[in-house]
Queue: 2 jobs
Job 1
Amino acid sequence: MKKMIKPFQTKYNSAPFSEIKNKDFKPAITQLINDAKKEIDAIVNNAEAPNFKNTIEALEFSGQQLNRVTSLFFNLNSAETSEDIQKIAQEISPLLSEFSNDVSLNEGLFGRVRSVFENKATLALTNEQSTLLDKNYKSFSRNGANLDEADKLKLREIDKKLAQLKLKFGENVLAETNKYELLITDEGDLSGLPDGAKEAAKQLAESKDMKGWLITLDYPSYIPFMTYADNRQLRKELSNAFGSKAFKGDEFDNKDNVLEIANLRFERARLLGYETHAHFVLEERMAETPENVSSFLNDLLERAKPAAEREFKNLEQFAKGLDNIDTLQKWDSAYYSEKLKQKLFSLDDEQLKPYFKLENVIEGVFIVANKLFGLSFEAISDVDKYHEDVLTYEVTDENGEFISLFYADFFPRPGKRNGAWMTSYKSQSIQNEVNERPHVSIVCNFTKPTKSKPSLLTFNEVTTLFHEFGHALHGILANTTYPSLSGTSVFWDFVELPSQILENWCYEKETLELFAKHYETGEVIPMDLIGKIKESATFHQGMQTLRQISFGLLDMAWHGKNPTAVTDVKAYENEAFKGTSLYPDVPTNCMSTSFSHIFQGGYSSGYYSYKWAEVLDADAFDYFKQEGIFNRIVASKFKDNVLSQGGTENPMVLYKRFRGQEPKPEALLKRAGLIE
């Protein structure tokens, strides 16, 4: 057991997954909390007068092993969970929440931090040190250090309850996703479905000792069926299963969890002196206030809605002309959009997929990273991993220096949540003149190889891989002193810039020719297909923009207002969606009950940041386009001022240092085809 508490005795101090047993986690975390408490006590009881080194820096580097082990545990809870792990998560979350409160409500510690903060003007601090000091002081005041004892106690109770509710919310969504199965026994019901999707469905059924074809709510199964299956009734069934996740009034229902989370967040914000949860959150964002977010979203809505309504009307007419569909429903959306796209551009994913073998796309994203930033990725097998599907790489720079460990986990499985994300197993920091390099991971849910075909990605999956890899680069190239300011530890509405900008390379001929090669013939993707990818990039951008805006508005409805009078989750959601709805409402569907981004993940009051970051990424990529998409001077400016800097300075300062100006929305609107 002691072996786990010390730094791991492994290559690059990597996580020894195979040696760690689930039962080890709770005792280890309990012990590490006690160790961290002793470190805090030593800071508080230091007889020397508080200064930056003995208080702010000492606090920053306290609890390092605790952070390491908890990040390991919660990453496993997302990518490789089990009932056992979920049970442990419910047990340790209140302990961690309690410890976090012990630190933020420690009067002696806050007294020392406040003393350093009040003397800031007399200290010769670097930009990074100044940011760390501000962040520390705010972290105390924003977490109740100025409250009286009764309110501090109330805050602790709220935080403990929220930690458990968020976990429960996520477990219910995962359980609902795993529970649903659509077994098809008549091959005629698979009409329209591509061969690869049929084969994958058959293989999935066989793996569960079933006869026929199995369709689930996991994206690689769900999306192809909704996009290609001709059987409208089955699309409806699947769509309703997806849309009603955790909204059925059964043991996995999340309606009460949604209301309780929203109300507790509101209560917490009011306790700390803020008008709403969104006011609390946005104080630490580029957007600054809920009013700015609403104004940003509504301005975009005004520009996108006419285009979205035009696109929807065209789609309705197309579906009516093709199949005499009177009213377009949600389960028709992907199906007829794909048919119309094929008609307009003679382009469909099945044409493109042979050119996007997963291994080739991985190689492609590595080449892009090499051409831009001089990084090299070498597959290694002497680093432990948590599942056999995980790939491991050693990342080096142009001098052959070790930069990072990189893990990649690409396929769905029962213990893994849906979607795609980037995460970190070890943060970058500089301590005692040693630059501790990061261990970064991306997790996706792509179509698995079948007996006859390798994993072939849709173009959407290609952009997803580039997106998550952009986040990974933000972690890999981190080069700051303090772990809490390193890598992706930036304002939430800035964090999507590195990920979203990298997606732009997927649409460029220069990039595609590097890796988009037919998996059987090796033929480079034909020019006409590249042209069609570019042309079709603005297809239904109005509707896509409206959809993203609607999610941002729903988030702000839950978190930017007083939710105490809300009793009906569905009715409240419909009100939030009123200005963005195109399709008829489905009474049995509710998005809020499975909106994990805002009720389980870290996106509460932050969903707008996807569109916010799109303004940044379109503006930034415009600079690359002007100078050449692989221009090393521009790439170096991006690396030196954005990717390596983490949260060391205000993001707008960093952005302007890279770009020479503030971002303008015109580049985004032009790219989306919403303005000429």
Job 2
Amino acid sequence: MCIQKEVKEAFLAEGMEERFAMVSLSNRPDLCQYQSNGALAAAKQYKKAPMMIAEAVAARLAGKSMFSLAEAVKPGFINLKLSNEYLAGYLNGMMESGAFGFEKTKTPKKIVIDYGGPNVAKPLHVGHLRPAIIGESIKRIRRFAGDEVIGDVHLGDWGLPMGLIITELKKRQPELVYFQEDYQGEYPEEAPFTIAELEEIYPFASAYSKEHPEYLEEAHQATYLLQSGNRGYLALWNHILDVSVADLKRNYDNLNVTFDLWKKESDAQPYIPDMVEAMKRDGYAYISEGALVVDVKEETDTKEIPPCMILKSDGATLYNTTDLATIVERMKLFSPDEIIYVVDKRQELYFEQIFRCARKTGLVKKDTGLTFLGFGTMNGKDGKPFKTRSGGVMRLESLIAEINEAVYQKIMENRSMEEEQAREVAKKVGLAALKYGDLSNQASKDYIFDVDRFTSFEGETGPYLLYTIVRIKSILAKYREQKGEAKGQKILPACGQSELDLSLVLVRFSEMILAAYRENAPHKICQYVYELSNAFNKFYHENKILGEEEEKKQSSWISLLTLTGDILNCCIGLLGMEAPDKM
């Protein structure tokens, strides 16, 4: 909206810097809709009484048709109300705009966003929920704002876990051709294991290796042979990838999360030798206690930042090495303006080392953004990290099933639809419950996972939002049955308080999207859709929309509802949700 622009011009016309033209939503809606406190801050610099400045600015604004109120109040506030005519005109402009009046960025960026991070051969668990749905939402918000965004799952596929699986397979099925050193033929196309078997093999092998040093040594040797190009082991590794990725895609699909790239740690391996050589040649990397390291501490540091280790004393690579080589790969393939990592906030120091090392050694351009988006922990009602009832780590698939079942039971209590339809609706509503329960929190904060609260159809929940959208769909469908398709109807100036309140929330859409975009903050969209749903439901309960006899007023309301529904659908889409037609 143009409020900020008008206030800036008024301050400038009074000979004051535009930085004082701050406008915010009023915390006293009974007095005004917006407020500017800039006169209080400007008073000191310009040695004038705050009220004198506020009155002069308010007098300039009072002459503008967009304001029905522009007044100065003690000790120097400027209270503002928009005229109902201006609001109606703005809403009609939103209806005609492809993005509801939101102006896409004039300087779009190319961004790679790393928001998956699962390991192959292991099932997704609750710890994989937050990076997936936060990253997916940020990807969608940035695309909506005009950026080119490349989402990468970044699979863990190249370390000791692979060696452990291969070792255990060899122990269980030594007759497989993959273990025959003189085998020269083609390897089978079908994997010698299912995803269920694979998911049992890895934890067994991992636990066994901790008790048996000789087994662990064998696994290290298998890892070395794999990374050195052993044909049979590479064939097994490809089977592991194929089986795992098919299962991961199915699980991510259930979360409505997609990736443009299914890149792996192994994809970065070819970049490591040249990267390490350049770090040595340019004098950044040196030997410390046998290991190759790069100093990343800075004079301004108030806490100890350890060196970034590049190679272990035996020449083996580390996660650091792979993550740095992945940056090299991303710069080479995409030359992004920014790389965003959606990762557990407890890894902040690790990524600080990686980013500093990448900058110091010239792996990225000087103006390339490296952004760490740390997320908090999903906790149970006991305040500890969320577990199964038996105390184990819960599979993500089980969590989704649990929340879908809770929603299904609530739907069937009303017996308003057939079982099959109820199951389909429960999937969409359950996903909204899960995602809104998570995304409504600031990403960096821990939160309590509460199935009962998240699946409630009342209060600040995903089901409440979807129910609001379904209610709007129902009203519009009934209107079409009665009077046909609504075409080109204008929104008229509001004639009641609840209609005005709904309009005032709608016109804040662009401002909200811009804030969510700039701050990588899906929770701002969550706050907005909840507020918009509340405003609509109040309007709905106070007005007989389908029973309104004055045709012009009813047509205006139908347009207002259409815009509200479209914006709610747009917002939940940016959060990775979808509304059913019926609930």
